[in-house]
Amino acid sequence: MTNRILTALAIRIAGIFLFTKIFDHFGSYFISIFSISAFSGFDEILNEPIDKFYFTGTFLTLANIVISIFLFVKAEWISRKLIKSEKEIITELNPKSLSKVILLTVGIVWLATSIYLMPNFIEFCFELISRLNGNEDAELTDFAAANYILKTILALILILRIEKISSWITKKI
After folding, report:
1. d(CA 10, CA 43)
2. Maximum Cα–Cα distance for the chain, whole Å?
3. Contact 16/70 with Cβ under 8 angstroms?
4. Is the pLDDT of residue 152 over 90?
5. Among the four residues 24, 79, 92, 133, which has the most C-beta atoms within 10 Å?
6. Residue 111 and residue 56: Cα distance in Å, rounded?
7. Distance CA 93, CA 96 (A)
8. 2-28 residue pLDDT tens
């Protein structure tokens, strides 16, 4: 396998993942728009903001579909533009390289989850600060802040210190 083929494969997978992200928010987005507009009182009060939200969300959904199809169909063209020389990828499987792959995968997944949950963590922090400042009405959301912080720190350590950690693991074997 060459680096250009691997890049095209990664671009295709990114296009598929981008396309599947549409279904994560598609149902809740359109159901919330139509249910709010179904109530006559809300329709009169929120007509303009709902229209802006609806058209912006619809445009972003369509843009997501177009970009994901473009990435999937034109993956070879993009990889040719990104990778100028085509080299064969040679890897040997040994304990150190295998530990690097496993640790790096875990670190990237934990970091991606942390980035995805960052708005929830920020909301939790605002509610906690409000609660600590004496606002008894502020309710804390059900968010595992300690787990979030620990996994984020561990993910950064795994990614930034992968060489030392994999060397330490292979010494123990």
Report:
1. 44
2. 69
3. no
4. yes
5. 79
6. 29
7. 8
8. 888 888 888 888 888 878 777 766 666
Q: List phi, psi (to 5°) of 138.
A: -70, 125
Whether the model clears a pTM of 0.70, i.e. scores above it, the answer is no
Q: Tell which residue, 173, 11, 18, has the closest CA to residue 96.
A: 173
Alpha-carbon distance values, 111 to 31, 38, 143, 144, 153 (Å):
31, 40, 17, 15, 9
Contact 87, 3 (CB under 8 A): yes
Classify residue 139 as left (phi > 0), alpha (psi -120 to 50) or beta: beta
Which pair of tokens denotes residue 32?
């919330």
Residues across the chain? 173
Q: Residue 45, CB half-sphere, CA atoms under 13 Å: how many?
A: 6
> What's the CA gap between 66 and 87, in Å, rounded?
31
Q: Are 158 and 106 in contact (CB under 8 A)?
A: yes
Q: Which amino acid would we find at residue 69?
A: I
- DSSP result, 85-146: S--B------HHHHHHHHHHHHHHHHHHHHHHTHHHHHHHHHHHHHHHTT-TTPPPPS--HH
Q: How confident is the model at residue 87 (pLDDT cuts 50, 70, 90)?
A: confident
Sequence-distant (≥ 6) Cβ neighbours of residue 4 within 8 angstroms? 79, 80, 83, 86
